[in-house]
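CPBP family intramembrane metalloprotease, Natrinema salsiterrestre. Tokens?
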Amino acid sequence: MTDPDRSRIGLFVGILLVAAVALVIIAASVDVSPIALAPAYMFSPMVAGLAVCLSRDIPLSDVGLRRGRLRWLAIAAVLALPLIGLTLAFALAVPGVDFDPTATPVPGLELPSGLLGVAVAAGLALVLGATINAIFAFGEEFGWRGYLLWELAPWGFWKASFAIGALWGIWHTPVIVAGYNYPSFPYIGVLAMTIACLSFSPVYTYVVVRAKSVLAAALLHGVFNGSAGLVVVYATADEAVLEELVASPVGAAGVLAFGAAAIAIAVLDTPTLSRKSLSGYRA
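Tokens:
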């Protein structure tokens, strides 16, 4: 099997670096936080992936731009909800973190209190996450679990997943330093986000391999983003370290939940990852 091409990877990473620098410069020039420009920044991995594929004659279907297996696309969309539920359970198990039954996860929309409200909010997160959010998530995922997964497939499931997870986490640096996700810990937050992405990545790789489509990762990512706020609003703490670094979907609770899923994959069903195994990919 052909090894990953360093020149293609260099082009991909180079474009991401240019996008990160441009984000910071543009935000400073118009006097806004980089977080305000994050929706546009989310598409930089897709731009980088497209640039590599189109300039190096890599068919887009080879890197996962296909419908894939519908059953696994559905599983990918729903999978975020039990993982967020597990994250919430881990968060509430931490001393000093409490469940707020009066929380309003959707501003302006009155939901039932208690666990019924959580269930209704989860349903809304699934619908919005698998539609609107998934469009923005695709901007990331075509780069991460589309082109880059295809490129690194010769490394195998675990090495490719962790390599992508590390780059994925570091890519967040401009918005994390600006206060995204960890406003009280902007620099420690870069490390925390990278650890979170490392724990998430095998699960994302798994659904793409099973669905044979990068759309699976976009659906999982979209619903995760849409439902992650449930942990933030329902699990409350008086200390910033607990709220941001521990009882958070991108903190220790989320790492434990996705880490448990990764262990389950390792023990029960680690798939073979190769360009050929992804169906339609060249070996």
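Residues 114-152 form the longest helix (39 residues).
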